[in-house]
Amino acid sequence: MVLTRSQxxxxxxxxxAGEGFTVPALVRRGCAPEDLHRLVRDGLVSAERIRVRGxxxxxxxxxxxxxxxxxxxxxxxxxxxxxxxxxxxxxxxxFALGFLAGIVAGALMKA
Length: 111
Known about the structure:
Elements: H1 5-16, E1 21-22, H2 23-28, H3 33-41, E2 45-49, E3 62-66, H4 68-110
Antiparallel strand pairs: 1-3, 2-3
Helix pairs in contact: 1-4
């Protein structure tokens, strides 16, 4: 599963918060409700309904907490991002070396 930036940020916020957050609190911090729904649906976050007397149930009346699967997905994603950054740097270095080798070869052919 590939995490979007919003999903990754939501998982990080939930991982840092020991007791989790409510849906409105996460939305105020920039997380998209659709991404939060997907995290719950995919089993990375657990949702517990908040019961308020005298108020009808609402889709935002949930308390969200990261679970073990969410922590593993976040850790796996961080490893993949680190690997892809290294790969980009290697490709740039190889391009620069090839470019310099082409310049040297061209100079030698001229001489």
